[in-house]
Amino acid sequence: MARPSRNVDKLLIEAGHELLAKTGVRGLSIRQLTEHAGVNLGMFHYHFKTKDAFVRALLEQKYNDMFVNLQMKSKDNASALENLRASINVLASFARDNRLLLVRLLADAAAGESVALDFLRTNMPRHLKLEISLIKQAQQDGALKPLPTPQALAFLVGAVGAPIMVGAAMSQSSLAPAPIRKQLEQFVFSDAAIAERVDMALLGMAAHKQTRGRK
Amino acid sequence: MARPSRNVDKLLIEAGHELLAKTGVRGLSIRQLTEHAGVNLGMFHYHFKTKDAFVRALLEQKYNDMFVNLQMKSKDNASALENLRASINVLASFARDNRLLLVRLLADAAAGESVALDFLRTNMPRHLKLEISLIKQAQQDGALKPLPTPQALAFLVGAVGAPIMVGAAMSQSSLAPAPIRKQLEQFVFSDAAIAERVDMALLGMAAHKQTRGRK
DNA sequence: TGTGTAATTATACGATTGTATAATTATTTA
DNA sequence: TAAATAATTATACAATCGTATAATTACACA
Predict the structure, then answer these.
(1) Which nucleotides of D are covered by protein (CB under 7 A)?
(2) What is the pTM of this model?
(3) Hey, what domains does chain A have and what are their CATH numbers?
(4) Distance CA B81, CA B89 (A)
């Protein structure tokens, strides 16, 4: 190496993390990025060549940072239902902590952004695998009533996770005034609120002696 | 009027509805739009001036088309809980029927698109007002356990609605393979699946003699 | 039949985008 | 000290974007 690097690639990555959470993939402009990082425009192409490659690197790094701490270990001595409860709680707290990026990622994916779609396609199934098997196990145990897996998973994840995503989107888009945000923090984002939703969802999915008629 | 109109404005609106559901606000290009409508580029400015105005017109019209059929009438002789159950079912079926546009709208809003945000800010509260009051009423009746309103509403809407939105996004983005889509149709989108989720959610929120400890 | 006028066309402007590259700088090493 | 070379700069290109407008067309009506 002839000339020592000023590590502008790291500056770019850093700025990228800040901006991506605010603008999403499509809204992220390279010039805005380099300006924010205090770096020459040409350096972007020098290090990353294309925007897609950059965002990929960004997501990959964030993914590694985030998911290192997400080790889910089931206890063999506990029931499938209790393992599921614990697992969903961990997953939801994790989603809460990284809600800004997750909301962006989902929004980008919904908008058809291929980088975001690829990322989700590659990484999401891995993290839902455990939950799916626990749901099936708990159903076999008779602790949860037999539901089609897509329905069961969607219900559980929706009931617990959707409030987090919607809350995050509302907070960031100023769709909610300041006082509402405080309420969100306490009643939707807190560990207690998450645990409460998990309990309610599992209670709703529980096997009951008598199915309630609808309507 | 000197020269008879060929009604290109209606062609544009029609093409707009088709494209908006696929591309979102940001991804919608005027040239792509006029091309799709088989119309000269200049006609766009002639009729709508700006993209924002066009999208506003698009959403307004869609809104009128959609929400005409969404008349929610509570029955006085039924309990608040049963009124809530019926109301959520109607709302969810409605979301299911218009899921393509709704997903786009949410994604655009999450991306900070001001037209989408304005639309949601203006129209969403009106439709949730009834549900909020019914939740409070059912809680006073002792049918639902006392939860903070944001938590109760988010849980209910998330549990019932999130599966629809996620399913729609997955179907459209080819994030789900074809066989999975068939499953979605049956186990997530159907009236029966919706009703099942509503029942489960309300069951989870119900007042129970003894609160289950968590963990 | 000719005139007024609304609808339509072709074209252009300026801004912004992602990407690319030749020239210059600053350092290591021989 | 000179040569080699990685890092950095300034600048440019082609495409696309939303928006705008002068010129042309086609019809209603007097």
Answers:
(1) 4-12, 16-22, 25-28
(2) 0.90
(3) 8-64 (1.10.10.60), 70-205 (1.10.357)
(4) 12
A212 touches chain B (CB under 8 A): yes
Determine the pLDDT at residue A49: 98
* Nearest residue: Cα versus C1' of D17: B29
Residue contacts between A and B (CB atoms, under 8 Å):
178
* Minimum Cα–Cα distance from A171: chain B residue: B110
Check if B25 contacts A (Cβ < 8 Å).
Answer: no
Nearest CA in chain B to A215: B86
DSSP A112: T
Is it the case that residue A33 has pLDDT exceeding 90? yes
For B152-173, the DSSP string reads HHHHHHHHHHHHHHHHHHHHHT
d(CA A121, CA A58): 16
Instruction: Find, among B142, B159, B123, the residue nearest to A175 by Cα.
Output: B123
pLDDT on residue A211: 45
Q: What is the DSSP letter of B143?
A: S
Q: What is the pLDDT of residue A72?
A: 67
- Nearest by CB: B162 against A158, A200, A208: A158
With 0-12 / 13-18 / 19 or more C-beta atoms within 10 angstroms meaning exposed / middle / buried, residue A182 is exposed
Residue B42, pLDDT score? 98
- Residues A91-108 have a mean pLDDT of 91
Enter the ipTM.
0.88
Cβ-proximal residues to A24 (8 Å cutoff; 6+ apart), any chain: A104, A107, A108, A111, A113, B111, B112
Estimate in Å the CA A65 to C1' C21 gap, whole number: 35
Q: Is residue B1 packed enough to be buried (19+ CB in 10 Å), middle (13-18) or exposed (0-12)?
A: exposed
Instruction: Give the Cα separation of B177 and B152 in Å (integer).
Output: 34
